[in-house]
Amino acid sequence: MKFEDLKLNYGYPIQLQTNTTGEPERYSCRLIGCVPGRHILLSVPRAAGKLLRFRPGQKLVARLMVGNGVGLFTCAVETQTAEPYPMLFVTYPDSVSFRGIRGATRVAVDVNIQVVNLDDINEQVVTGNIADISCTGARMEVNGVAGNIGDRILISCAVEVLGIIRELQLEATIRSRVERSTQEIEDLPAIYGIEFVEKDEERRLLLYAFVFSQLAKDEQSA
Questions:
Q1: Is the pLDDT assigned to residue 184 strictly greater than 50?
Q2: How far is residue 54's CA from residue 61's CA, in Å, rounded to a whole number?
Q3: Cys-Cys link to 31, which of 12, 22, 35, 138 (CB 3.0-4.6 A)?
Q4: What is the pLDDT of residue 215?
Q5: Does 101 have pLDDT greater than 80?
Q6: Stretch 130-138: mean pLDDT, rounded?
Q7: Domains plus CATH for the chain?
């Protein structure tokens, strides 16, 4: 797609990636303006409270979240100004590649959980962990029997988003179970596929924030 097709508002956040030390480094900046076909104006990123210096011709990779995915384009530094405001001029991209992130995209995690079977009279409790998760469901591994297919369960765990830790409870339904042989029962956890059916909006928002933060980490390490 074309950059102008994104219809970005001024001030839109953009991440710039450099590779000056052999390790990719990423810095946040904002869109100031653009002259279609010529150049894009960006705010100058800061590191440790100081404005970074870029050299003319330096190659950069720009990333930005757009809709339900990630936009990516390459550009080169034209010039950097200090007056009247710090600004970075980069070349206008020929095109922007786009990678969609579906709501059901799974990401690997390792989150300790406690599971209560809401359809069990005694509300039995087992512990374990979530091995991968999406906005719609997860794969969990527990040290015991969590229930039968179709049972409603309540999952409790602590999740971290941008350094903030919150307690999260989610209602879910068991959709599948990987059966284990008698010899495996002592050594391997029971594996369940679950679908989230939580109706509370605050809990769902925290779930979405956690999933997308994990997707962002996964994207950065790719």
A1: no
A2: 13
A3: 12
A4: 82
A5: no
A6: 90
A7: 3-100 (2.30.110.10), 107-221 (2.40.10.220)
